[in-house]
């Protein structure tokens, strides 16, 4: 069969970093003459970019692989990502898997799949090395809906949070020089995309391998023609310096939207987690942002049910979050990962208590999110509209990440438009009116 007729499907689990990498792999295949299809369809090749942040994520990966094997018997199943790096043998032993590529080999996946297709080989292959040896950087950015691109600026992490398996899956903190990232930002701008989300594992740590800094990076990106706005996907509170905040405050492009991991609102649990800040620092960072930038959107990550977290500790976290009034909470039920220090910790929290605490913070999130939207009714924002059309409506996000709904108008797709916030829709979006 000619390769031009080969159909390739992609399936991504996990973070935005994985999405940016899959998008880059997909471009390599389509530029090579392959036809990209949905993973719900029959295909000749399935590329699965896995995640291993929780036990549930591993399970989803295995289920996806089995589904694709059943859907298209004989297809080339190529698996990469964190699960593939951490447990290559386990992945290779799943029936139908032909290729497993670890963190260092991800950038070679396209080349190796093409060779397998040409050789018609059926022997499973594992390409993976010790994570401590991984020092290359797979350059990546996404080109999904042509409105927003996720640009990978950094990979790996040198921190050793006691619950986290990511340093074992992605290796040490590293990045490519600013100059190369600017080239990528220019490519993104040339495609017509107006918004870039900076992604990485620990992006505040940017510059370690190139003698630069995160502040240098955002200063240079700010000057790229054609890109109208930037969001910082997630940044550790201890790396969110006054200089970074002040730069964002005066920049017309870096938006008043901050995603910051807290993980726990008690210093006792933060200590057990080996996080590099205490709750006072976290609170101080939010206060600093609020004093420099009016009405920012805060999204906060929190883990519930960490070993040793008592009902009292949880209540303290709840009250802390209630007081901070973020606009959104990303709630993660604690999940034990092999080869992390938490395996040996005592006072594990019962699954039913973890679920109850996650539900409780879920409700708090709903309340805070609604509160933030209501506070903004009557105000206005600059919205970048997307292409999705649903029931005659279109949607876009404002600077402050408010999801705005207006009647569909094709001319506004991928355009920035000023909108007045009128009221909340029944499903919780902001109903807007063009100004
Ligand atoms: S900062 Fe901590 S939680 Fe985040 S990737 Fe690094 S080790 Fe994991």
Automatic annotation (TrEMBL):
GO terms of molecular function:
4 iron, 4 sulfur cluster binding; metal ion binding; tRNA-2-methylthio-N(6)-dimethylallyladenosine(37) synthase activity
GO cellular component: a single term: cytosol
Any idea where the Radical SAM core domain is? 143-371
Name any cofactors this protein relies on.
[4Fe-4S] cluster
Keyword hit for Cytoplasm:
yes
* UniProt protein name: Threonylcarbamoyladenosine tRNA methylthiotransferase MtaB
Per the UniProt record, the source organism is: Acetobacteroides hydrogenigenes
Looking at the record's lineage, which domain of life comes first? Bacteria
Which ranges carry the MTTase N-terminal domain? 6-122
Q: Which InterPro entries match?
A: Elp3/MiaA/NifB-like_rSAM (IPR006638), Methylthiotransferase (IPR005839), Methylthiotransferase_CS (IPR020612), Methylthiotransferase_N (IPR013848), Methylthiotransferase_N_sf (IPR038135), MiaB-like_bact (IPR006467), rSAM (IPR007197), rSAM_horseshoe (IPR023404)
Q: What is the lineage of its organism?
A: Bacteria, Pseudomonadati, Bacteroidota, Bacteroidia, Bacteroidales
This protein's record includes keyword Transport = no
Keywords (alphabetical) are: 4Fe-4S, Cytoplasm, Iron, Iron-sulfur, Metal-binding, S-adenosyl-L-methionine, Transferase, tRNA processing
Pfam families membership: Radical_SAM, UPF0004
């Amino acid at each position: 069969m000619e390769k031009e007729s080969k159909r390739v499907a992609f399936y991504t689990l996990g973070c935005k970093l994985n999405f940016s990498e899959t998008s880059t792999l997909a471009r390599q295949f389509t530029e090579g003459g392959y036809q990209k299809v949905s993973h719900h369809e029959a295909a000749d090749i399935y590329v699965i970019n896995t995640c291993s942040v929780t036990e549930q994520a591993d399970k989803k990966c295995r289920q996806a692989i089995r589904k694709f094997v059943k859907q298209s018997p004989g297809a080339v199943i190529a698996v990469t990502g964190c699960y593939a790096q951490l447990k290559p043998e386990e992945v290779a032993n799943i029936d139908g898997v032909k290729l497993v590529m670890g963190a260092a080999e991800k950038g070679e996946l396209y080349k190796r799949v093409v060779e397998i297709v040409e050789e018609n080989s059926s022997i499973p292959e594992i390409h993976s090395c010790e994570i401590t040896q991984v020092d290359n950087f797979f350059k990546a950015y996404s080109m999904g809906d042509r409105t927003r691109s996720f640009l990978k600026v950094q990979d790996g992490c040198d921190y050793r949070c006691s619950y986290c398996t990511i340093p074992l899956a992605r290796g040490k903190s590293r990045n490519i020089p600013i100059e190369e990232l600017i080239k990528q930002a220019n490519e993104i701008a040339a495609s017509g995309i107006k918004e870039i989300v900076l992604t990485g594992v620990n992006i505040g740590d940017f510059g370690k391998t190139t003698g630069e800094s995160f502040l240098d990076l955002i200063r240079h990106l700010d000057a790229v023609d054609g890109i109208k706005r930037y969001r910082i996907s997630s940044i550790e509170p201890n790396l969110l310096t006054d200089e970074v905040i002040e730069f964002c405050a005066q920049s017309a492009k870096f938006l008043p939207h901050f995603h910051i991991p807290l993980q726990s609102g008690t210093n006792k649990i933060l200590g057990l987690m080996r996080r590099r800040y205490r709750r006072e620092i976290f609170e101080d960072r939010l206060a600093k942002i609020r004093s420099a930038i009016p009405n920012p959107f805060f999204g906060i990550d929190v883990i519930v049910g960490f070993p040793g977290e008592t009902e009292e500790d949880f209540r303290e976290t709840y009250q802390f979050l209630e007081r901070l009034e973020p606009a959104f909470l990303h709630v993660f039920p604690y999940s034990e990962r092999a080869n992390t220090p938490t395996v040996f910790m005592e006072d594990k929290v019962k699954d039913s208590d973890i679920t109850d605490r996650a539900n409780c913070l879920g409700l708090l999130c709903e309340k805070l999110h609604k509160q933030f939207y209501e506070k903004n009714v009557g105000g206005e924002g600059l919205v970048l509209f997307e292409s999705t059309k649903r029931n005659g409506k279109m949607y876009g996000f404002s600077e402050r990440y408010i999801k705005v709904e207006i009647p569909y108008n094709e001319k506004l797709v991928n355009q920035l438009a000023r909108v007045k916030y009128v009221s909340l829709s029944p499903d919780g979006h902001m109903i807007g009116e063009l100004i």
